[in-house]
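Now for my pick.
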Amino acid sequence: IHSNLQGETVSSRCDEVQGLIKRGCNMTFIENPLGQQDIVQNKSVTNRSKGLVALKPEEITQVQPQKVNLTLRSGEPQSFELKFKRAEDYPIDLYYLMDLSYSMKDDLENVKNLGTSLMEEMQKITSDFRIGFGSFVEKTVMPYISTTPAKLLNPCTGDQNCTSPFSYKNVLPLTSDGNMFNNLVGVQQISGNLDSPEGGFDAIMQVAVCGEQIGWRNVTRLLVFSTDAGFHFAGDGKLGGIVLPNDGKCHLENNVYTMSHYYDYPSIAHLVQKLSDNNIQTIFAVTGDFQPVYQVSSHQPLSVPFEEINLRFKLNETTNNHKLMLYVNLVNIILILKILRRNMFSFICTSFSTVFLQPQVHFNISITSKGCPNNGKPEIIKVRPLGFTEEVEITLNFICECDCHHQRIENSPDCHFGNGTYECGACRCKDGRVGRKCECSSNDVATEDMDRTCRKDNGTDICSNNGECVCGTCECKTRENPEERYSGQFCECDNFNCDRSGNKLCGGHGKCVCRKCVCDPMWNGTACDCSLDQSTCLAKNKQICNGRGRCECGTCKCDDPKFQGSTCEMCPTCPGVCAEHKDCVECRAFGTGEKKETCQKECSYFTLFKVKSREKLPQPNDGAYPIGHCKERDANDCWMYYTYSVTNNTENVVYVLEEPDCPTGPDIIPIVAGVVAGIVLIGLALLLIWKLLMIIHDRREFAKFEKEKMNAKWDTGENPIYKSAVTTVVNPKYEGK
């Protein structure tokens, strides 16, 4: 056993194997006893079919294994497989318990037929079948029945002839004589009582505990209980002055229950216990009105703690009580299903598991010890399927100490002159002695001198407030997490208060020793988060950070901010970057360009974002890293505007304008119209210029003419041959007035 670190308690040596190895314990000194199992008796289940040689019940095996020894260590489960196979032609005892109160009059004939059908069909299932028959009414005291002499002879009214009331009669003990059963069932007569609930629980109790009178064998035991009413239970007997609780014992005399007037009805829990103790499975055939009553009761359970099924079947349509409810467990169903299928009953399975209908069922049984009960003494438990006598006997042995305890040395000199027992590498002190070596008396442990030795200096707490001073030595506290420990002479150290990185103690690359990280090789830093491995900084050209930076903690720190990337290989703002990434940006953003076919393979190295306008493109001063703005022509001769950058996480990011800037084509009509208009305008302009020149020329000629005219010196006399064109005529009558 590895010795303790200074300040650790003796109990700290108990840990999981990996934890002890991690703390430096040699595997040869670690005690790790493990549980084990031993199959003592493992007789195979019986394989046989009906019609073969008959076997005695004790010769049939349906449960395997039969005996198991388990050695358990606390908290460590031990598991084994249990096989169950129901043997064909297995002996069955079936007892039919019938309600003969007056309310069953309408159903009596059908209930008689049910009993006969059960017997006939069960004989087809197994050759070793016995059937019995009993009936019940009510306690024979007021107010359950009328105690007048006439009513005791015939409790029915009018001309009806009924049998005298009784509590319970064992009409026919279990027998293989089917004719006798049919005859006795056929001659049964109705009796009567005053209240609605019946005394069926009294009858069930006597059937369960009167094994000799009923004739139960150590085989499958079935009890079919038929009624059309509810039941009395413990406490109802007070109405008749009966206050003694049911004693759960047999009180049959001449096959009649004689103490119904003396003992109260049994409680449901009492009845369940007796049915379970005597290994009897109960089948309830009740009317639909009382289905919820018996369904709740059966969950106590009056049937079994396995999953139940409900079988609904109808009697003849002429009966007033149309529905009976039959509650059976999974074991019963394989015996009853054929009977109901072949008779007048129709049924509906509302919840049914086929576990017991399989040829062979396997169960995995796991047992875990949560301590050392009874000081480690062996215990025996038994497991059996309800309704069967066979069981698995499991002997439990407990591991409560390590093997090294058997090699202990009492009064060892290693324990301060024999003041303790040296076992498993530590001292177990005698009463009145304390300390790691039992060197102190319990009366001296609280002295000031001893406390002084547990202080690092006068200004500190005893054991740094992380432990207790025992016999002048600090014993450090333990924490809920067994991986976390205090240590040191004054408990001043621990292994959980070191620096963390990535939410891991010492970055997961070191050990916390006395609140300081001791890093693994190739790691450095207060939290062991700085890697000394430079392989992550090695560029493709085999240079550290491409010769543009230095490697710090496994990451390149570039000397020039314009260089980026894991090895300073990128320069988003350097010339040529835009042309380098143009084809990939074009195929990723617009699905065009030279790399359109290989885009997914070659151009997935950056993250692309689209923006709607150039104003939304990242600007050089927006981020903490350089951003390169690019303008390139695409395959359609359009302008692409985008930015390329490398983030601080060495992630390539591209923002691109979602619509390229493409030049528009010429508009023919305006051009033609412009040309025509130009020609016309030019012609008009030429005409105007010609006209202007002609006007100027004419004016110049006229001015020249006038000038010459003014300068002319010819004779101004009249032409002798000139004759004026004007003729003047004087009116002779004109007087000049």
